[in-house]
Design a protein that fits this description.
The protein is α/β, with parallel strands linked by helices and 290 residues long. The protein is 39% helix and 18% strand. The protein folds into two domains: 88 residues, 3-Layer(aba) Sandwich (Rossmann fold), CATH 3.40.50; 134 residues, 3-Layer(aba) Sandwich (Rossmann fold). Strand 9 and strand 10 form a beta hairpin. The longest helix has 21 residues.
């Protein structure tokens, strides 16, 4: 059994990006600039954005945190988005989700210039990704593809079952896995919470990508021997034995499933670290393409 080490792989990718940035500096070129828009003071969002800023510093990017009060109007936020779209020294930016309930998230995401949409959420980028044109691939699916590719996990001709149909993970990774690419050429089944006989489907799978959001949903009796398992889930579960009061669990019952797997990602330390690394990769691409 091989553990797909997202932490180690993401560190390697960051080093590769830092090397590219150093080359830019030597040529006197402007380094990539990533901004994060944060509305309110949500603790988890602050932590996540802080991690992104530190990663920017590590690879040599310029970064900006643009923070607004929780009561900012939708109109005012849209005006701020417009300013970012027209900022010539800003290569890419993200709008940290979730947004307050009085703001329409879809309206905000649609207002982002696709050329600066390094999260890869804009419909134009989604469509370009599906057509295998230059685009920003959503960071989590991008990270999964990188893990499979760098570990030389066999995917061609394999049956890949994706469990979860979100626009951020499930749908894009199902498209990517079916495409002609090194980590691709798979036959893909896209399943979800309403899928009937899900166990019968997962037992046939050579590769399972879990993005359902239910802690330890995938059990050992739901998989066959030598399966490859990618766990996208990350849920805080109350744990009295942990000093934090909770433990982080994925969608996979790791201890039992890992005994049958040929390749598997841990939680934490698997897909999670890859997400930020690929956000940086998208920002580098934005600097190079635009």
């Amino acid at each position: 059994m091989v553990i797909l080490d997202g932490k180690g792989t993401s560190d390697q990718i960051k080093l590769e990006i830092r090397d590219e940035v150093n080359k830019m500096k030597l040529k006197g070129e402007r380094v990539p600039h990533l901004a994060a828009v944060l509305v309110g003071n949500d603790g988890a969002s602050l932590t996540y954005v802080g991690s992104k800023v530190r990663s920017c510093d590590y690879v040599g990017f310029k970064s900006s945190l643009i923070q607004f009060n929780n009561d900012i109007s939708e109109k005012k936020l849209l005006n701020e988005i417009k300013k970012l779209n027209h900022n010539p020294i800003l290569d890419g930016y993200i709008v940290q989700l979730p947004l307050p309930k009085h703001i329409n998230e879809q309206k905000i995401l649609l207002a982002i210039d696709p050329k600066k949409d390094v999260d890869g959420f804009h419909p134009e980028n989604f469509g370009r990704m599906a057509l295998q044109l230059n685009s920003y691939i959503p960071a989590t699916p991008f990270g999964i593809i990188q893990l499979l590719d760098r570990y030389k996990v066999p995917t061609s001709g394999k049956h890949c079952v994706v469990v979860g149909r979100s626009h951020i993970v499930g749908k894009p990774i199902s498209i990517l896995m079916s495409q002609k690419r090194p980590a691709g050429n798979a036959t893909v089944t896209l399943a979800h919470s309403r899928t009937e006989n899900l166990v019968a489907i997962t037992r046939q799978a050579d590769i399972i990508i879990m993005a359902l959001g239910i802690p330890e949903y995938l059990k050992a009796d739901m998989v066959k021997n030598d399966v490859t398992v990618i766990d996208v889930g990350i849920t805080r579960v109350p744990d009295k034995n942990n000093s934090k009061g909770y433990s982080i669990k994925g969608d996979v019952a790791y201890d039992e499933v890992s005994k049958k797997a040929s390749f598997i990602t841990p939680v934490p330390g698997g897909v999670g670290p890859m997400t930020i690394a690929m956000l940086l990769k998208n920002t580098l691409l934005a600097r190079q393409w635009n």
